[in-house]
């Protein structure tokens, strides 16, 4: 599987080590040493995966990630950073990152994550639809009955996971793991975000598409 990758990393010693290992693994790698240069490359070249350090000069990794998503670039993005606190991870995912790897890391694990992201992209659809609810993954827009809806990053992630599984219900534990990883929130957090999601997706339209199945999970299901 041919993979063309962009690495945006200002630590030149680390960048050299990573590039050499990736090339041995058959991955073609372009490199930028600051956020602005990375943005220019990402907007003008096609990449299968983008690796971003967070602490970049000129434009940090989270700003760069958010800027790419705003420009409609849906290339999988993996954050490489020494910041391992939960708020840093959540901020990266909110900016549009797909994965997160804390330094120091094993190069073999990095390659495995790159290949997984590349495979996921090659097999993913660009549009999800349940009834009159439509999610455009490429442009990151969601609408119902032709009316555009505005969702927070966490509500977007919850809805995408539910729509991918539709019509099957998703257990609450799986939703929490998908959004918050190994550091689950308090028991009320998912309930709060689901209330916000229902308020946006269901309440103005009269016909609910989001359903809670007691003891089973939450589903997005079209009307019969």
UniProtKB/TrEMBL annotation:
<dbReference type="InterPro" id="IPR001867">
    <property type="entry name" value="OmpR/PhoB-type_DNA-bd"/>
</dbReference>
<keyword id="KW-0805">Transcription regulation</keyword>
<dbReference type="GO" id="GO:0000976">
    <property type="term" value="F:transcription cis-regulatory region binding"/>
</dbReference>
<dbReference type="GO" id="GO:0006355">
    <property type="term" value="P:regulation of DNA-templated transcription"/>
</dbReference>
<feature type="domain" description="OmpR/PhoB-type">
    <location>
        <begin position="125"/>
        <end position="222"/>
    </location>
</feature>
<dbReference type="Pfam" id="PF00486">
    <property type="entry name" value="Trans_reg_C"/>
</dbReference>
<feature type="domain" description="Response regulatory">
    <location>
        <begin position="4"/>
        <end position="118"/>
    </location>
</feature>
<feature type="DNA-binding region" description="OmpR/PhoB-type">
    <location>
        <begin position="125"/>
        <end position="222"/>
    </location>
</feature>
<keyword id="KW-0597">Phosphoprotein</keyword>
<keyword id="KW-0804">Transcription</keyword>
<protein>
    <submittedName>
        <fullName>DNA-binding response regulator</fullName>
    </submittedName>
</protein>
<dbReference type="GO" id="GO:0032993">
    <property type="term" value="C:protein-DNA complex"/>
</dbReference>
<dbReference type="InterPro" id="IPR001789">
    <property type="entry name" value="Sig_transdc_resp-reg_receiver"/>
</dbReference>
<dbReference type="InterPro" id="IPR016032">
    <property type="entry name" value="Sig_transdc_resp-reg_C-effctor"/>
</dbReference>
<keyword id="KW-0902">Two-component regulatory system</keyword>
<dbReference type="InterPro" id="IPR011006">
    <property type="entry name" value="CheY-like_superfamily"/>
</dbReference>
<dbReference type="GO" id="GO:0000156">
    <property type="term" value="F:phosphorelay response regulator activity"/>
</dbReference>
<feature type="modified residue" description="4-aspartylphosphate">
    <location>
        <position position="53"/>
    </location>
</feature>
<dbReference type="InterPro" id="IPR039420">
    <property type="entry name" value="WalR-like"/>
</dbReference>
<keyword id="KW-0238">DNA-binding</keyword>
<dbReference type="InterPro" id="IPR036388">
    <property type="entry name" value="WH-like_DNA-bd_sf"/>
</dbReference>
<dbReference type="GO" id="GO:0005829">
    <property type="term" value="C:cytosol"/>
</dbReference>
<dbReference type="Pfam" id="PF00072">
    <property type="entry name" value="Response_reg"/>
</dbReference>
